[in-house]
Structures are given as C-alpha cells and as structure tokens.
Design goal:
The structure is a single chain. By secondary structure, this protein is an alpha/beta fold. It folds into 2 domains: 115 residues, no CATH class; 225 residues, Spore Coat Polysaccharide Biosynthesis Protein SpsA, Chain A, CATH 3.90.550.10. It is built from 15 helices and 11 strands. The strands form 2 sheets. Strands 3-2-1-4-7-6-8-5 form an 8-stranded mixed beta sheet, with helices on both faces. Strands 9-10-11 form a 3-stranded antiparallel beta sheet. Helix 3 links the parallel strand 1 and strand 2. Helix 2 packs parallel to helix 13, helix 3 runs parallel beside helix 4 and helix 12 runs antiparallel to helix 13. The longest helix has 26 residues. It is globular, with a radius of gyration of 22 Å. It starts with a helix and ends with a helix.
Length: 385
C-alpha cells in the first residue's frame, strides 16, 4: 500500500499535466493561419457600445473606432438616461469625425438587473445593419479591427467571432499583476478549452455576429437578468450549431484598477459566477493549482530534490506558458520583466478560488447580488422578498 506522502507527491504532480496541455494548446493555436489572411468580407456594420459614464481615456477609446479602414459602418452608443458626462465626448467625436455616423440612445427602455445587457437588447433592436460588432467602452482598437473581426462571418457556418484583449499601458503594480494573470492563467484556460472542447463562449471586449444569430436564441432580452452575458452569448450561438471563432488578434483594454481591492472584487465576481455556471469545472481548478501543490510536495518531503523538482518545474512551466501566449502569440512587450509576478498572481488566484466557496454574493458596479437559478438577484430586493 502506498504511503500518504507518496500519494500527495503524485497528486501534486497533476497540475504539471494541465500545464503541458496548456503549452501544447497554445503552441498549436498560434501556429495556425491568422484571420487577416482571409479574403475580404466587408458588409455594412453597426458598432454597438453599452456605456455607463466614461472610462479612462474615453475619447481615445471611441475615436479608435472612428478611424477604421472600413467602407461602411455606424457607431451606436447607449447611455443612461441622465448621463451628461458622455455628451462632450460624443460632441468632440462628431466634430472631429464628421464623416462617421454616430448615434446615441438614452436608456435601455427596460427594467433589468443587468443594465448593460438591457442596453445591448435595445442597441441590437435599433441597429441599422445586420452585422453587429459589440465591444466594451474601455476597448481601443487598430484601424484593421473591423475588417479582421467581421471576416469570419463570410462563412455561413460561423455564428460569431471573438478575440483576445491585452492591457493598454499597464504602468502601476495592479495593472501589471492583472496583465500577468491574463496571459499566464486566463488565456491558458481558454486555449485548453479550445483544444479539448472547441470555442463555446465569447469574450466581452469583442463579439462580432449578426442580428439573426442573436435572434436565434431570443436575443439579449432573454439573458438581461443573468451574469456573464459574453460567455452566454457564445454558448447560445454555439448551441444553434454555429461555430464561434477565437481570432489570432487582440484589442487593447484600458485598465481602471485603482487598487488591489478593485482587482480582488472583479476576479472574485468572475470566479463566483463560474462556480454557479460550471460547478464541476470550478471544482476541477483544484488540480490546476501548481504553486500550492508544489508547496505541499515540499512540506511532506522537504528535500532539495523535491524543492528543485516541483517548485522548479512549476515556475518553468508557468514561465513557458506566459512566453508562448504573451510573447509568441500576442506579441506583447515587457513580458520578461513581469515573469517574477507569476507566483504572486498564482497565490492570489488560489486565495480567490478558495474564497469563492465561501461567497454567497457578488459585487458588481458598487452593488451586491445573489446568484439564484442562474440569475442576478439584488441583495436588498432578496431581503424585501
């Protein structure tokens, strides 16, 4: 019979299998032909943006969508009914880009828990064109953006396209830590999912699709009280038998993390939502945590060989994953200088994962919500009920 230290040493090696799969997945993914090599496909497009106030560098973010090398498109914003801060930004856009069609809708016209999704429901309904490109208001893009993300829709088997996003101008410590988490952790999981099960999700910063594909599952109004709308849209389109393409392309997301608390609450919200949407997958994350398991291995067998074997292999795998995704795949600069933050990110991610089992609510836009039957329920409303 195996002694328990030997069993623990075996279990502690399981994350290395996951890391190996992540490495192979990332290498295979980025070796394939990029979407930009496809034949041109440039139907008229409606750029849709749900907004709440203005993000950092709001003008430059929106202006990048006005600088598109694309024949015909409109930009439609949906803002809060009493939102006045966005008006000067829109006026400047219209003044400096008079050739662009820019419309502003005030209010979603709906009563929904997830106001962003309610705004998207109105935006899709009032879009002028069949092809819609949905993006967050903190996103900044290059002039080839529309041509790239719309191109896959030329294939009738493709229902949606989405793409990576990278942090723009990460200068403070929190931004750098978030960037490390995206390149070494979040995208590694996405590429493993791509390898094993295909893409059955979308990433919020960019979703290119059509009004018909959205109508196929009932439209945004059917998910306006649910969290993780981007993941749901990709899943619901895939369930109709269409392919969701994850492009070899990235946009920039302007960071707005003012403190570690901001990063903590955003990551915790995301992982609590995942616990409700994919409970077994969330539990399975226990076997992807290389840092704590390597520490356990050293604790049960504290020798130099175990320390070098487990902790050394852990960091080597994690650094290789970050290099393939961040440098080889996404062509990001300064990745080497952030490698030392990998163990700190992994420690933070592990604590957040453990904490997620203790949380009954999530915080979103300054308010607290329960997740019940897959829907967001405001805590104050739950108390009244």
């Amino acid at each position: 019979m195996l002694a328990w230290p030997a069993i623990l040493l075996g279990v502690a090696a399981i994350p290395f299998i996951y890391y190996a799969i992540a490495l192979v997945s990332a290498w295979r993914y980025f070796r394939t032909e990029p979407a930009s090599a496809r034949a041109p496909f440039t139907p008229p497009v409606s750029n849709l943006k749900p907004m709440r106030g203005v993000d950092p560098d709001a003008y430059e973010n929106l202006a990048s969508f006005c600088r598109q090398d694309y024949p015909e498109f409109e930009m439609v914003l949906c803002v809060d009914e009493d939102d006045e801060v966005v008006a000067p930004v829109v006026e400047r856009l219209r003044r400096e880009f008079p050739q662009r069609a820019i419309r502003v809708l005030h209010g979603s016209g709906r009563a929904a828990t997830n106001d962003k999704v309610a705004k998207l429901a109105r935006l899709v309904n009032e879009a002028e064109h069949e092809v819609v490109v949905i993006s967050d208001s903190d996103v900044r893009v290059r002039p080839d953006y529309l041509r790239t993300v719309v191109a896959p829709l030329a294939d009738p088997k493709v229902g949606a396209a989405t793409c990576f996003y990278v942090t723009a101008g990460a200068e403070n410590f929190v931004d750098k830590l978030q960037s490390v988490g995206m390149m070494s952790d979040f995208y590694a999981g996405i590429l493993v999912a791509w390898q094993l099960d295909g893409v059955k999700f979308a990433l919020g910063p960019t979703i290119a699709t059509t009004r018909s594909r959205l109508a196929g599952f009932g439209g945004y109004q059917t998910i306006e009280n649910r969290p993780a709308d981007d993941l749901l849209v990709g899943r619901l389109i895939a369930e109709q038998g269409y392919r969701v393409e994850l492009l070899r392309y990235s946009v920039e997301s302007v960071p707005d993390y003012r403190s570690m608390s901001d990063l903590w609450h955003k990551r915790l919200r995301w992982i609590v939502v995942m616990r409700h949407m994919r409970p077994w997958g969330h539990l399975g994350l226990a076997l992807t945590q290389g840092l704590p398991w390597s520490i356990v291995a050293f604790a049960v067998h504290p020798t130099a060989m175990v320390a070098a074997g487990y902790l050394g292999a852990y960091f080597a795998f994690r650094a290789a994953i970050m290099w393939i995704i961040g440098v080889h795949g996404l062509k990001q600069r300064g990745v080497w200088g952030k490698m030392a933050l990998i163990p700190l990110w992994d420690a933070l991610a592990f604590v957040i994962w453990v904490t997620s089992f203790l949380r009954r609510s999530v915080r979103w836009r300054g308010a607290d919500y329960y997740i019940r039957d897959g829907e967001l329920v405001p805590m104050d409303e739950s108390v009244r009920g």
